[in-house]
Amino acid sequence: MALINEHYLKLQRSYLFADIAKKVNIFKVSHPKERLISLGIGDVTLPLCPAVIDAMHKAVDDMAVKEHFHGYGPEQGYLWLREAIVKNDFLTRGIHIDPSEVFVNDGAKGDTGNIGELVRWDNSMAVTDPIYPVYIDSNVMNGRAGTVNEHGEWSNVTYMPCNEQNAFVPRIPDHRVDMIYLCYPNNPTGTVITKSELRKWVNYAIRNDAVIFYDAAYEAYIQDDDIPHSIYEIKGARKVAIEFHSYSKTAGFTGIRCGYTIVPKELTASTLDGSRRLALNPLWNRHQCTKFNGVSYVSQRAAEAIYTAEGKQQVREQIAYYMGNARLMQQALTQLGFRVYGGVNAPYLWVKTPDGSTSWRFFEEMLYGAHVVCTPGVGFGPSGEGYVRLTSFGDRDDCLEAMERIAHWLKK
Ligand SMILES: *Cc1c(COP(=O)(O)O)cnc(C)c1O
Q1: What CA–CA distances, in Å, run from 106 to 146, 168, 232, 296, 306?
Q2: Is 39 helix (H, G, I), strand (E, B) or coil?
Q3: Residues with Cβ < 8 Å from 134, sequence gap 6 or more?
């Protein structure tokens, strides 16, 4: 008899965005003529830039002729892409990464969800709260998270709240944990971490023999010069951190699928009896060779094109467009009296709901009052209660209209 993995049954009943879709559909059925503006789901809307499109066309042509056809590629990714990554994303910041430390993937979600396989199932874990749900849900599936209470907190997870009271700076745990998930610039709060704060985490990990999983999916949105783009800007991080990058938000690759993970050679973990320390890089290589067969040639050529002079310029323009949206939304909402966080170095705005309203209540009020869709903050973790997330990935005119609608709604 096949027995089910009962850890899956512990997962929250449904997915946050499915709940939102359900409520939006109810609205649509009762208001068939109204046009909703969604500032909810974190997906990009601009088409791929010309440099990427040209590279993809060329790659398709390669696949059409025998001499240039590509079958299975290297599991870790083509060397030309890994070399472009090393040169453009790291060397320019004074960080030395070897191409053998780069693992090209089909986007960051898979790797952030799978990376926990490298360490024992009973390792303890910590996350900032609120957070991208993948880090916790993937650990629920393998049994590491424990059981959930009525506030949505898992028994074996250390939560590090990020809220107005601590200016969204998480406190370092007062006990030791084995694995730490950090995401900066942060989804959902849009806040960033300074170098000196990040240094505290690296030092904590070194002292406690912990590993940091650092999700840098939004690093391209950083505008301020002194905010770190990579955890490897911090001395000692190569010994304790794995870093995830994605072209999804950087260059609109959500539908193309490409990203990469850095697993430095110096990063090690201990065997249970403490007799040996082993490098995680060869283990991750083994993981990828067993469970992954590489990213398509066309997608990798598309990613390579981002690093050409034209590609860099075109991607910068797309990011500037989204950050322009963020700025105008941030200004409009602040003027209306909202307390707004993020939106300066990230495409997300984290908005305090007025009058102590719950996330879901405010979501419904804005849906019915302004016909604007947001994401209830509590869907990202217990400390997200009392906030909603707005994204700046929409159309400029839609953002402007959404702000007008909200202003109009509040005046009523
Ligand atoms: C969007 C996102 C990713 C990237 O997902 P892909 O699988 O690369 O599309 C990773 N981490 C966070 C926090 C995200 O919001």
Answers
A1: 29, 31, 22, 9, 16
A2: coil
A3: 109, 112, 113
Q: Is 259 in the pocket of ligand 1 (CB under 6 A)?
A: yes
What are the two backbone dihedrals, phi and then psi, of residue 175, each rounded to the nearest 5 degrees?
-130, 175
At 108, which helix (H) or strand (E)? helix 108-114
pTM of the predicted protein model: 0.97
Q: Which helix (H) or strand (E) holds 83?
A: helix 79-85
Q: How far is the CA of 82 from the centre of ligand 1 (A)?
A: 20
Report CA-CA distances (Å) from 80 to 99, 100, 237.
Answer: 9, 12, 26
Nearest CA to ligand 1 atom 14: 217
Q: What is the DSSP letter of 38?
A: E
Q: Kindly state if the Cβ of 132 falls inside 6 Å of ligand 1.
A: yes
> Given ligand 1 and candidates 115, 132, 242, 260, which is best to mutate, with the most ligand atoms within 8 Å of its CB?
132
Residue nearest (by alpha carbon) to ligand 1 atom 11: 217
271: alpha, beta or left? (left if phi > 0; alpha if psi -120 to 50): beta
pLDDT in tens, 307-318: 999 999 999 999
What proportion of the chain, given as a percentage, has pLDDT over 70?
A: 100
Instruction: Please indicate whether residue 353, judged by its CB atom, sits closer than 6 Å to ligand 1.
Output: no
107 lines ligand 1 (CB under 6 A): yes
User: What's the average pLDDT block by block, 10 residues per block, for the chain (412 residues)?
Assistant: 94 80 95 95 93 98 98 97 98 98 98 97 96 95 93 94 96 96 98 98 98 98 98 98 98 98 98 96 98 97 98 98 98 98 98 96 98 96 97 97 98 86
What's the 69 CA to ligand 1 centre distance in angstroms?
30
254 lines ligand 1 (CB under 6 A): yes
Q: Which pLDDT belongs to residue 14? A: 66
Residue 111 Cβ inside 6 Å of ligand 1? The answer reads no
